[in-house]
Amino acid sequence: MSFPESSPRSFKRAILKLSGEALREPGSTDNISPEIVERIASEVRDALAPGDLELGIVVGGGNFWRGASASARGMDRATADYVGMLATVMNSLALQGSLEHHGVTCVVQSAIEMKNVAETFIRRKAERHLGERRVVIFAAGTGSPFFSTDTTAALRASEMGADVVFKATMVDGVYDSDPKKNPDAKRYSRIGFQDCISRQLKVMDATAFSLCMDNNIPIVIFDLGPAGNITKALRGEQIGTVVTGTETVLG
Ligand code: UDP
């Protein structure tokens, strides 16, 4: 797929990755801001309005818990990671509620069985939901410790045959140097997977980059802060930085 020089929405099936932090109001002690979740849901609804996009969503859990941080403070890593995966389920349920409030039909599928609150992740069932234009929220990460929800997004995108991964984050793309330290830092419109991996760019983890590279799935990294950005990204407007197999382009 040539992305995104081709016409807007040249993709049919997409995975949107939201970090857990995105659901928290900065400075608030509440882990989830219902107002922010509502805003995200309304933007997703607007993006889906034309009716031609199949969307899966992966939500992180960093607003509650990160396994690596707890492990650095002495907790067993695998146990800490299971706690992190359960955190993603809380975020997924909150997002499901808001999406339904906005009239978007959606299903939560959890990689850890939790029958009372979510379907269990079954690939073929998830594919069927997507094909019938139901949003699938993939909860509980991969279901395995030592992974991240970025990797979950890359994995689900690969197995669902998605055309693209959208990573909504707190920065508006990938820069050639730290824009907070260097006022002349330039943003890439396009960067190659190999560059991201060899330069150890922290915007997404290396496992996620590798998985998308191996399966030829571009990643669009964009800032979810400005209102309307999720809608713009999912509608195929040029936004943020596109990570692809092709060469790196500045500006
Ligand atoms: N996690 C895991 N396996 C997975 C996905 C997530 O063990 O497949 C755990 C891990 O501890 C991670 C936490 O869940 O720190 C929350 O996910 P993540 O840090 O990716 O959330 P985000 O930074 O996107 O909010």
Automatic annotation (TrEMBL):
Binding site for UMP: 61, 81, 142-149
Superkingdom per UniProt: Bacteria
Gene label: pyrH
GO molecular function: UMP kinase activity
Organism in which the protein naturally occurs: Luteolibacter rhizosphaerae
Pathway(s): Pyrimidine metabolism; CTP biosynthesis via de novo pathway; UDP from UMP (UMPK route): step 1/1
Binding site for ATP: 17-20, 62, 66, 169, 175, 178
Record protein name field: Uridylate kinase
UniProt activity-regulation remark: Inhibited by UTP.
EC number, as in UniProt: 2.7.4.22
Limits of the Aspartate/glutamate/uridylate kinase domain: 12-223
Phylogenetic placement of the source organism: Bacteria, Pseudomonadati, Verrucomicrobiota, Verrucomicrobiia, Verrucomicrobiales
Subunit and partners: Homohexamer.
Protein's cellular compartments: Cytoplasm
